[in-house]
Amino acid sequence: MSETVETAANDVQVNERLQSIFVETEYLKNYKSVNHVRDLPDIYLDEPLDLGGENSGPTALEMGLCALNSCTAMIMNILRREMKFDIGGVRFESTGIHDVRRAEMRRTGKLFSEVEPIAYHYHKVTQKVFMKTSEDGERLAQFKSEVERLCPLHALLRDAGVDVESIWIHEVS
């Protein structure tokens, strides 16, 4: 793959820009799996007790929201430097609505695979960003727009057609 990408540096090759990431996941039992990432401690994913799991870790959908918040924070850090944007602190609260299908299974007696989901992914995601900054409203709006445009997880949700509501709360620093 030696295709040239049209960039400010026209000699940049696609294979110089695209980088693979790798994780390994081992299914353990019931809903529990363990994920191995680089040389980091193992990450266990599971379901809560009321859904038949052992509650030994977050669900995959909860990890998706964690990934959204962390990815947003990483892009904010990059843009903070580029835009010389003042950030005194940031925290996130995200909620994902998804179709667990249990109520429909109970009502109809159908199996999980027989219930047509409302959405195969998150039905809606609400991300609240609490930011301490001395920046004015116009700069904050520009910063928010750029963060959401450049964040790969925001793009993934947008491209999947997920209704994403992003609420930024300006906390004066």
> What is the averaged pLDDT score?
90
The level-1 CATH class of the largest domain = Alpha Beta
Query: What is the strand tally?
Result: 6
SS-derived structural category: alpha+beta
Tell me which CATH architecture of the largest domain applies here. Answer: 2-Layer Sandwich
First-residue to last-residue Cα separation: 48 Å
What helical percentage do the residues reach? 25-40%
Superfamily (CATH H level) name of the largest domain: K homology (KH) domain
What overall geometry do the principal axes of the alpha carbons give? globular
Short description:
The protein has 5 helices and 6 strands; from the N terminus they run αβββαβαβααβ. It is of the alpha+beta class and 173 residues long.
Structural write-up:
The strands form 2 sheets. A 3-stranded antiparallel sheet has the order 1-2-3, with no helix packed on it. By secondary structure, the chain is of the alpha+beta class. The model has no long low-confidence stretch (mean pLDDT 90). The protein folds into 2 domains: 1-57, no CATH class; 59-172, GMP Synthetase, Chain A, domain 3 (2-Layer Sandwich), CATH 3.30.300. It has helices spanning 14-17, 60-83, 102-108, 137-150, 152-159, and strands at 23-29, 32-37, 43-45, 89-97, 124-133, 163-172. It contains 5 helices and 6 strands.
